[in-house]
Amino acid sequence: MSRASSALKAREEEQGWLACMRSAFAQGEACALRHFRSQEKKGDLIVHAKEDCSPVTLADRETEQAMLRVVRSFYPDASLLGEETGESLSSSDGGLWIVDPIDGTRGFVVGWPLFGILLARLDEAGKPRVGAVSMPALGCRRFFATSSGGCWEEDAQGCKKQEMATSACAQLEEARLFVGEAEKTLLHDAARVLASRVRVCRYAHDCYMFVRLAAGGVDIVVEAGLQAYDFMPLVLLVTQAGGVVSDWQGNPLTRHSKGEVVASANARLHRQVLACIESSL
Question: Sign of the C-alpha dihedral, residues 78, 79, 82, 84?
Fold first, then answer.
């Protein structure tokens, strides 16, 4: 197959995956928002603790099931990895769909609107081909990135609103940092030192900080203690907007990475961040 034919096939595959993601988001958003609005009014959402002590609710489980049904309707033999349902592999599909139904459950259960829904499609080699984020309580804003190029925002009707690009900040001391999963991340000396070096430091428990990095409003994100479904859908969002994302040693992220993630607006800034982390390990 010629290079042009391969590129055309790749684009066609990505368009099919994007269509599936839009449909999955529509179902997931409706389910998540139904629970979220009820929680805002009644405060009656029951929260359980998983084995790792992280919270889970009926909203997480129902949202994931609704989205997985859509993926299976498009791709009956799909291999799946869901935060709540685990992994289901297919011998006929070497790729993998990853679903995080509610990223930011801690905020969700107190009516905080910055929870997101994450989706990714990985190829047979485990590399992300499409990554996407929906922010249901922010008007169902959706953010997509593909390996063939581009990172953009869409509305719930699938209309592209704008291309996204990271900032040009190239000095650590001028950077705006978000520390995710702070109660885990700040146990590491490296994260505390990094936080002391930047101009602005904030804390979060959700994916929206990566969206803001891709849009140029944040310069660095650092996190520890993550799982593959927390970060693999976000890799392309960062890189296709012009940023760099890796583990704390500078290695590319894979679904088997141990969960220490750092993302920067550009390569020059990323080198400084990694140097700061290395000096503190």
Answer: positive
pLDDT tens digits along 8-45: 778 889 999 999 999 999 999 999 999 898 876 666 66
Would you mind telling me the total number of residues written for the chain in this entry? 281
Segment 38-96, tens digit of pLDDT: 876 666 667 676 666 576 788 999 999 999 999 999 999 999 999 999 988 876 777 99
Angstrom distance (rounded) from CA 273 to CA 281: 13
- Stated as kind and residue range, the H or E segment containing 166 is none
> pTM here?
0.93
Query: Token pair 């010629």 is at which residue?
Result: 2
The topology under which CATH files domain 172-280 is D-Maltodextrin-Binding Protein; domain 2 (3.40.190)
- Strand ranges for the chain from DSSP E: 47-49, 55-57, 80-82, 86-88, 96-103, 116-122, 128-135, 141-146, 151-154, 160-163, 176-180, 200-204, 220-223, 244-247, 261-264
User: What are the angstrom distances between the C-alpha of 180 and each of 8, 83, 101, 171, 231?
Assistant: 38, 18, 18, 21, 11
User: What is the rounded distance in angstroms from the CA atom of residue 245 to the CA atom of residue 270?
Assistant: 8
CA 65, CA 268: separation in Å to the nearest integer? 41
**What are the structural domain ranges in the chain?**
3-163, 172-280
| CATH T-level assignment (fold) for domain 3-163 | Fructose-1,6-Bisphosphatase; Chain A, domain 1 (3.30.540)
